[in-house]
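At this stage, I needed to go through a protein sequence along with its fold in token form, as given directly below:
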Amino acid sequence: MGFFGIGTWEILLILVIALIIWGPNKLPEIARKLGQISRTVRKASHEFTAAVSREIESQESEKPAPTRDNPAENTRKTPVKPASTPPESPDHQPEKPERSTPDV
């Protein structure tokens, strides 16, 4: 498989037909023009991509950071509720997890 899914023989056939139509004097000029067009398109594509990337970066840098004072700026959709802890009495001792004895 060759250029754009065209095989080697097909490319040679196209080149021979182009040589017959335009002649050997005109082919280098046509190739030069095609190279200039390709270079121009590649440069424009690169500049467009760079401009879009700069715009995206500037949009991201302009976003304000979320604050605790203003929940509208918070990025979370639902507020997080703090975990409630039961009131501890002076006699209250935390439960210790049961230890399992290893099987021997």
The first helix runs from residue 8 to 22. The chain is about 50% helix and 0% strand. The helical segments are 8-22, 27-62. Residues 24-62 form one domain.
